[in-house]
Amino acid sequence: MLEIRGLRKVFGAGKVALDGVSFAVPAGQMFGFVGANGAGKTTTMRIVMGVLQADEGEVIWNGRPLTFAERRTFGYMPEERGLYQKMRVGEQIDYFGRLHGLDAGAVGKARDALIGRLGLTERVNDTVESLSLGNQQRVQLAVALIHDPELLILDEPFSGLDPIAVDVLAEVLHERARGGVPVIFSSHQLELVERLCDAVGIVSAGSMVASGTVDELRDAEGRRLRVVVREPKPGWADGLPGELSKDGDRDVLTVVGGDDQAVLRRAVEAGHVEFFGVERPTLVEIFREAVA
Ligand SMILES: Nc1ncnc2c1ncn2[C@@H]1O[C@H](COP(=O)(O)OP(=O)(O)OP(=O)(O)O)[C@@H](O)[C@H]1O
């Protein structure tokens, strides 16, 4: 379990990048880290990886302050990426494996498995610079995974990828999570985060403004009722809580709270009810509300 406790980071002359960020990611959880540009995601990840030092707060790993040696067991995909453009794909992966202390036999085995799993077999002898963005990202993931990390921390691993590459990466991350590894990744692709993650943290201006499972966040936001009535009697929704809008000859009423059945009775009396249902907010809506 990774716990981030009260991280604060101020850059230069008073730029507060983090102002008390806290969250926890247990073993086997896929945690989506979301927030507007400049919210503090990369800074948080860099502190976890020891690239930056926090001014205040702690990073706790399995109940104790994270050590340098433990950090070496983590896999990291930095925002700035970190591949050697002139190196061949296979050599690159091997190089990072050796940096993590693996011997030649172990590196070879892990490299072959990853290359196959990530669909890079045809590209193993190509230089990194000759690869498409999507294939470079696959190599970057292979490099982060070569030492069978105990935690994965990935800064926007899905950015710029086509849907097939997204599926490959997502499946590989899910495999790791199923094996008990906490997986943390940042992304601006909220539909993707909603689809892939067990839990989500929304950071805004250096603070965590909402976190929990997607279900918990949806429940906290509250359910809403949507009613569509065709050719309704004018004024039928007067006095009902909610917002009424027009869509051609239909009225669309959105109600938060209130008595569902009373709304239904009114709608049935008013005209032809085409839709009546409780809807839960999407992560995009929750995000907009949380960072507003
Ligand atoms: N080295 C630095 N020096 C000064 N300010 C910095 C530095 N690194 C980050 N910042 C500032 O800290 C804030 C948080 O930046 P950070 O990169 O963590 O945000 P982010 O959530 O990852 O954004 P994005 O989604 O755009 O990648 C921003 O205002 C950024 O300009």
Automatic annotation (TrEMBL):
| Molecular function via GO | ATP binding; ATP hydrolysis activity
Which keywords describe this protein according to UniProt?
Answer: Antibiotic resistance, ATP-binding, Nucleotide-binding, Transport
State its location(s): Cell membrane
- InterPro entries on file: AAA+_ATPase, ABC_transporter-like_ATP-bd, ABC_transporter-like_CS, ABC_transporter_ATP-binding, DrrA1/2-like_C, P-loop_NTPase
Q: Report domain ABC transporter positions.
A: 2-230
Answer whether the UniProt record assigns the keyword Secreted to this protein.
no
GO biological process entries? response to antibiotic
Q: Where is it found, in Gene Ontology cellular component terms?
A: plasma membrane
Please report the record's description of how this protein sits within the membrane.
Answer: Peripheral membrane protein
Signal peptide range equals none
Name the protein family.
Answer: Belongs to the ABC transporter superfamily.
Q: Which PANTHER family match?
A: ABC TRANSPORTER ATP-BINDING PROTEIN (PTHR42711), ABC TRANSPORTER ATP-BINDING PROTEIN NATA (PTHR42711:SF5)
Protein name as catalogued: ATP-binding cassette domain-containing protein
